[in-house]
Predict the 3D structure of the following.
Amino acid sequence: MVPGTQRRRAIPRDAHMRHERELRLAGFRRIAGIDEVGRGSLAGPVVAAVVILPERHLIRGLRDSKVLARARREVLYEQILDRAIGVGVGCIEVEVIDRINILEATKLAMRQALDHLVEAPDHLVIDALSLRDVDLPQRPIVGGDAISASIAAASIVAKVTRDRICAEFDGRYPAYGFSRNKGYGTPFHLDALLAEGPCEWHRRTFAPVRMMLAGEQLSLQLLLESRLFTDEEIDAEG
């Protein structure tokens, strides 16, 4: 770097419709973007959303939900619901996550979201994953929530939906700060977990909840000292 200069911080760009345009040129018409939120949380459900945008969706600012301010996400959420051809949401609760594991629960939430569409899509674009038991052509896209407008829209719907669920559970279990940390392992959340123990909304198969329940206090303390998330990182983690 030249002395006296500063590296400019990259400004996130709006997600585009290139993948969707390619698929339309190939003859597909109802292209659905799919994304999820909550895979890494210590508590609460994993939520997936599917969105089918019109060819000219006219929604400015569609980006990965994690780079958007909360107020902007809420505005885009309403625009997506108003202008999308179809929107579906799937929500898989803690008991199922603990029973079948988080990856399978994520895929189940995605299939549930597809089932909630009034009309089925004819092609899927998915953030990183593929759904082998869904009989539709699919295009997994790594980092798709930052690239594909359809996936970005799905990420916004999923995150706003889950954030609202977390706010509701914050009212039931105020000690853990779910409204702020969304169930992720922030220092405040982990301290509350040590003081209060887990509530029914915590995932029993996730560390450090699993370690606490197993009485592994030394290993748990080492994990806490290594720090998982700060409150400021929560939006960046989903």
User: Anything to note?
Assistant: Strands lie at 31-37, 46-52, 86-92, 123-127, 138-141. The chain has two domains: 18-168, 175-237. Residues 149-172 form the longest helix (24 residues).
